[in-house]
């Protein structure tokens, strides 16, 4: 009986020790893991990819999965129930639609600004030198669709200058505009200065002063019903924080 009691006591001690170890283990692995899904404007691809890599390095076990597209398309997807943890748009209008639908977990934070520039195929074969030149007869111009932030900015420049463009196509994202110019399908296009910088060598950038009257502000917000709510807030803070701003500035974005 004494031997049996001793065995039971030892077993109990072992069990208590295992429980302590398990509790300690769960405490050490309490940090969130898994996939963080981020919907972001197409113009953010380069900068957000770098910020995402930094975030993954600081959060072992976390993978950041991006969906880059036009802001209007992303906002529509979120309103239609697409699963995402974070939304970053290239304008405040599309973000406001998501806010008004009650789909943000916190108030959006403005983290960057951007302006338009003209891009042409290398060497600027058509000699485009101003915004007004885009309206010349025979000049094939590509812009973003009006509901896309870069298209809305182009429309604001048209109104302020009185120059009416007749684009050969209206694209759903700024990267689509850039692709058409790079491929030689257009003589010129309107994209953000950040896109022109990223495509240096593949296009020629032609700045125009009127772009300063159509500045786009970029907000980011964690979304309601996020699968990774804690990580969503942390990523939003990372984007708007000092290191995120440094990455964005290096890519050509302005401060909010």
Give a structural overview:
With 256 residues, this protein is an alpha/beta fold. It has 2 domains: 34-112 and 218-250, D-Maltodextrin-Binding Protein, domain 2; 116-213, D-Maltodextrin-Binding Protein, domain 2, CATH 3.40.190. The chain is built from 9 helices and 10 strands. The chain has a 5-stranded mixed beta sheet with strand order 2-1-3-10-4. α3 packs parallel to α4. The longest helix is centred in the first third of the chain and has 27 residues, at 2-28. The termini are far apart.
Short characterization:
This protein is an alpha/beta fold and 256 residues long. 42% of the residues lie in helices and 20% in strands.
Whole-number tally of structural domains: 2
- CATH structural class of the largest domain: Alpha Beta
Distance between the termini: 77 Å
CATH superfamily of the largest domain: Periplasmic binding protein-like II
**Element-level helix/strand string:** HEHEHEHEEEHEHEHEEHH
Could you list the spans in which at least 5 consecutive residues all have pLDDT below 50?
1-28
* CATH architecture classification of the largest domain: 3-Layer(aba) Sandwich
Give me the count of strands: 10
Q: With helices defined by DSSP (H or I, 4 residues minimum), what is the helix count?
A: 9
* Overall pLDDT: 90
- Which class best fits the helix and strand makeup? alpha/beta
Would you tell me which CATH topology of the largest domain applies?
D-Maltodextrin-Binding Protein, domain 2
Basic shape: elongated
User: What amount of the residues lies in strands?
Assistant: 15-25%
